[in-house]
Design brief:
Shape of chain A: globular
Low-confidence stretches of chain B: 1-8
Structural class of chain B: alpha/beta
Protein name (chain A): Phenazine antibiotic biosynthesis protein
Structural class of chain A: alpha/beta
Distance between the termini of chain B: 51 Å
InterPro entries (chain A): ANL_N_sf (IPR042099)
Strand order of the largest sheet of chain B: 17-20-21-15-14-22-23
CATH topology of the largest domain in chain B: Aldehyde Dehydrogenase, Chain A, domain 1
Largest sheet of chain B: 7 strands, mixed
InterPro entries (chain B): Ald_DH/histidinol_DH, Ald_DH_C, Ald_DH_N, Aldehyde_DH_dom
Number of strands of chain B: 24
Domain Aldehyde dehydrogenase (chain B): 174-449
Oligomer: heterodimer
Number of strands of chain A: 15
Organism (chain A): Streptomyces sioyaensis
Radius of gyration of chain B: 23 Å
Number of helices of chain A: 10
Helix content of chain A: 25-40%
Radius of gyration of chain A: 20 Å
Number of domains of chain B: 2
Strand content of chain A: 15-25%
Helix content of chain B: 25-40%
Number of helices of chain B: 13
CATH architecture of the largest domain in chain B: 3-Layer(aba) Sandwich
Chain lengths: 364, 464
């Protein structure tokens, strides 16, 4: 019995594996009785194909059903590949935003989190984020992976990380119940707390959601403070329309780096804004580990480059296998960076309705 | 940046930019404004929320011009509006665009241009009618040395969530500018040309870019106008949501009515009654929605139907057009709605349908006359954007009750007690007695009360 992973699953973040060799090794890992997770080994019995022999390329991921809704109920220990051994090194259990019902969960081994943050830090360098500065995070905290990514980014790329608690589910609930005034008061409370930190600390990087940034910008003294201290803003969580992005870049924060993230707890990660992609933000994934396909929502086939479609997300790593997750967003399909599998996505916007529950955008 | 004097058409479409606190702004996100045939006529730039928030803040920072400068600029703006080429459009091209997009008969648009000119010249004069007679307009008035009321603003920034049914709706809000407010106008997508032209003219005439702005927005950003203003008024979905807020003045349906009592022979007034229904193409809140008749309503309904039935079906830009036009799709939807609403009522005109398609995707909304059996039938208040009238019987026993909730009441009666009752009824805004059409107005006549009563308050001042 061998629980050793194929070395192609353990490459440093900046050594891209051969995509097909990578997929075959990942299938072997996740579906071999010795190394796969209890969840997938059980789930594979109801598949009408054998992942270890039939899945040879990224395109073959489409063979899998979308199992993401099962992540609302699966005990998380069943998601850890047995190959990690009896005492797996886990950094945390993370939950989705709960926008569309009960939250979904994933469990994150240390090797993946470290590889992800290494990749993300390299992106920050490419976008001229200053090293060694203090960070302020106005992002979901609690069980959301974005909070963990914030803390690790701040600690490794920056110096100290300052956070404000933020519960996006409560805001969504308030909005759904028609309590817009309470949602408003909560968001103002978040900005008030950020102000204390911005005023007293040496904040060089601000991580924030578009809705909160819009709110911060209503306070002219805070705009001045951000322009005085903050050298780079990393935004994410919901989308920033091109007009607003342009205003930030040219009028409101003209000297500040703007860099967007598009992610999901269900990919255990983020896609980063392509440098120089202008105001129609193009997002590249950490391929081949995290990949997007922009598809026709009815046929599930990719739309042509430049056309709008719905985003399907895949996560394939030693840590997790979660393919074919139809996300709640529409995007323009864009060609990936050369040599990478999957699509890049631009001009992301939420689908109006999803799985019979109206999507509500709030602070998050 | 687009100068107001250069023709600006991309792909043949009129570009209507946001007119913000530091000039014109063309967004990437633009709404296509179709004409009545569905063909794109213009592109309207949409300001994102962040832009609106900052524009509202800029309005608040700006100081108003002096009262004299404001009045002078409004008079000048009226002349520019009615005569100059603005945003590349001559007066004729502007009127054509309003007519083709809004479906308003061109003569109605031309009349509105003349009215805009007259009203801007008289605006300050008209406003003085709203000032309590004991109040002076400025604390420097020597009367305050003995103690006096001063007429003052209730706020600094005013948001207008404009209607798009008729260009004339834009003759009212410049009063706020005259009173020293900084004003943000959110145009209706149904007809953004008039507010764009008027705001441009006001800026050409001397108002600063941070004193009057045009902020077309999508639904979400519309809230930012309301949030950034001290007072707001208008008729869009945001105003409806906040209609109970005391800082919001909603425009509500006019439900204007005519009462023909037995005191007069209605045949003598048929011209005025018909004009009250169909003037402005029946698109105004001042057009009569119901005619109440003491006695048998059938001959009145028949006579009105006879007059209205001969009105021609023409494209709105035709000089002889009288009736409004919409896209055939929305006209058919309106037809289904009216047919359902009218079920059981006796139709004198238009009962089998009132949509006449013009073949280019547009359709004329032809007049409709229904007879109701009771004065208190709620359908008598069903106001629609074309000549659509409900004729019902009325008796002295019915009294004023069926005449409630009326913007303009045109009453043909000699009964002083009845007239007293109309004047005493708080939900009737204007009472026109005798042979005056419901759309009549003149300098100093309030529309639905004075807008200035919403915008202003009095302050006791004594000095010296």
């Amino acid at each position: 019995m061998s629980t050793a992973a194929h070395p192609v699953l353990d490459l440093p973040f900046d050594t891209p594996p051969d995509p097909e060799e990578f997929i075959r090794a990942a299938m072997e890992w996740h579906f071999h009785p010795d190394t796969g997770s209890p969840y997938w080994l059980e789930r594979a019995t109801s598949l009408d194909f054998d992942p270890r022999t039939d899945v040879k390329s990224h395109d073959d991921l489409q063979l899998f059903p979308n199992v993401v809704n099962e992540m609302r109920k699966v005990p998380v220990h069943a998601l850890i590949p047995k190959g990690y051994g009896p005492r797996p090194d886990i950094v945390g259990v993370y939950e989705s935003g709960g926008t569309t019902g009960a939250p979904k969960r994933v469990v994150c081994p240390r090797d993946w989190m470290e590889r992800l943050v290494d990749w993300s830090n390299a992106n920050l360098d490419e976008h001229d984020f200053p090293r060694g500065v203090d960070w302020l995070g106005l992002t979901p905290s609690g069980p959301h992976i974005v909070g963990e990514i914030f803390r690790r980014s701040a600690a490794t790329h920056g110096r100290h990380g300052f956070q404000v608690d933020l519960d996006p589910r409560w805001v969504k609930k308030l909005i759904a119940d028609g309590k817009a005034d309470q949602a408003d008061a909560y968001a103002e409370h978040v900005i008030d707390q950020a102000e204390f930190i911005l005023r007293t600390q040496e904040i060089g990087v601000l991580t924030i959601t578009p809705a909160l940034l819009e709110r911060l910008v209503r306070r002219e003294d805070l705009v001045a403070l951000v322009n005085e201290k903050v050298r780079a803003i990393r935004w994410g969580g919901t989308q920033l329309d091109p007009d607003t992005h342009h205003l930030y870049r040219t009028e409101i924060f003209p000297e500040t780096v703007l860099y967007g993230h598009y992610g999901s707890t269900m990919i255990m990660g983020i896609a980063g804004q392509r440098p120089g992609s202008g105001d129609s933000c193009v997002f590249d994934t950490f391929s081949p580990y995290v990949t997007f396909s922009v598809v026709d929502p009815v046929t599930r086939r990719p739309v042509p480059y430049g056309a709008r479609g719905q985003v399907v997300m895949n996560h394939v790593s030693k840590a997790l296998f979660l393919p074919n997750n139809l996300e709640r967003d529409l995007a323009t399909r864009v060609e990936p960076v050369r040599g990478r599998v999957g699509d890049a996505a631009a001009d992301i916007a939420p689908v109006g309705r999803f799985e019979n529950e109206a999507v509500i955008e709030g602070v998050y | 940046m687009v100068s107001s004097q250069e023709t600006d058409r991309t792909d043949g479409l009129i570009q209507l930019d946001v007119l913000g606190p530091s000039g014109s702004y063309r967004s990437r996100s633009r709404a296509t404004v179709p004409d009545v045939s569905g063909r794109p006529a213009a592109e309207l730039s949409l300001a994102p929320t962040v832009y609106v928030d900052r524009a509202m803040a800029a309005l608040r920072r700006a100081r108003p011009l002096s009262a004299d400068e404001r009045v002078a600029a409004i008079v000048r703006a009226g002349r520019l509006f009615a005569t100059e080429t603005i945003n590349g459009l001559t007066v004729g091209e502007y009127e054509h665009a309003v007519s083709r997009v809004g479906g308003v008969p061109i003569q109605v648009v031309r009349a509105a241009t003349r009215t805009a000119l007259e009203r801007s010249a008289q605006l300050h004069h008209g406003l003085q009618h709203a000032r309590p007679w004991g109040a002076v307009g400025d604390w420097r008035d020597p009367l305050t040395r003995a103690g006096r009321a001063v007429w003052t603003r209730r706020g600094e920034v005013f948001a207008v969530h404009a209607a798009g049914n008729h260009p004339g709706t834009h003759t009212l809000w410049p009063e706020a500018l005259a009173l020293g407010y900084r004003v943000a106008v959110r145009p209706s997508r149904r007809e953004p040309f008039t507010p764009h032209r008027l705001v441009t003219a006001l800026r050409m005439a001397g108002f600063g870019e941070d004193q009057v702005v045009l902020l077309p927005t999508d639904h979400a950003a519309a809230e930012a106008l309301l949030r950034g203003a001290d007072l707001a008024y208008g008729s869009d979905e945001v105003i409806r949501r906040y209609a109970d807020d005391p800082a919001v003045l909603p425009l509500i349906p006019g439900r204007s009515k005519i009462l023909l009592t037995a005191d007069t022979d209605w045949r003598d007034h048929l011209d005025t009654v018909v004009e009250s229904i169909a003037h402005h193409g029946g698109t105004g809140c001042v057009n009569a929605t119901a005619v109440l008749v003491e006695g048998d309503p059938a001959p009145v309904a028949e006579a009105i139907a006879g007059r209205l039935s001969v009105l021609p079906s023409l494209p709105p830009e035709d000089d002889k057009a009288i009736l409004p036009v919409q896209s055939a799709v929305s006209a058919r939807a309106l037809e289904r709605y009216v047919r359902d609403r009218a079920a059981g009522a006796r139709a004198h005109l238009g009962g089998d349908g009132f949509v006449e398609e013009l073949g280019d995707g547009s359709a004329v909304l032809r007049p409709v006359v229904h007879q109701l059996e009771r004065a208190d039938d709620p359908r008598a208040g069903a106001e629609l954007p074309f000549p659509c009238v409900w004729v019902a019987p009325w008796s002295r026993e019915d009294g004023v009750t069926p005449l409630r909730d009326t913007l303009i009441l045109g009453a043909y009666t000699d009964d002083d007690r009845l007239i007293d009752a109309f004047l005493d009824e708080p939900t009737i805004a204007n009472v026109y007695l005798g042979d005056h059409p419901t759309y009549w107005t003149a300098t100093g006549i309030p529309h639905d009360g004075y807008l200035a009563h919403f915008l202003m308050r009095t302050k006791g001042v004594i000095r010296g």
